[in-house]
From TrEMBL:
It is found in: Cell membrane. It comes from Microbulbifer celer. It holds the Pfam family Peptidase_A8. It is a multi-pass membrane protein. It is an enzyme of class 3 (hydrolase). The active site is at D128, D146. Belongs to the peptidase A8 family. This is Lipoprotein signal peptidase.
Amino acid sequence: MPNNSGHKIFSSPLRWYLLALAIIVIDIVTKVWAVDQFMYGPALQIIPGLLQFTYAENYGAAFSFLADAGGWQRWFFGAVAIGFSAVVIMWIWRLPAVKRWEPTALALILGGALGNLWDRILLGYVRDFISVYYGNWHFPVFNVADMAITVGAAMLVIELLFFKDRSDEGSEKSAEV
């Protein structure tokens, strides 16, 4: 009988937590790189007129929401991220092992939330460095954690809108076995 003990992690919820951890690590490494490269230096044009790497500090939430609130928002958004992360951790844990799309989406969201939480707790703000713009129009500067949250949320919406019935059938069949 073959020894599959090395593969048990890939059939347990731990694989999704490892994905979240990878997002956190990538997010922190890229933020450290951005601080080193762009905090006191010029922006780096990736696609002139469209995409650049720069440095920004976000004291608020998405799109700098409540950035000027006086400091209490740091702890409020931190508490929200901790509570939300706890819910997502339990949600992932309770999903059937056959599911792939939903836990991937949740792991991306979890990793992004914890990546930004790391900044918020340690620094009091979130480090952003990816700037998308066209002419005078500028999208708010963002980071890898924000991208992970956005992609994960989009995946959840796609799951709920287009695949919920199919994934429910798959869960029922796996529960019958």
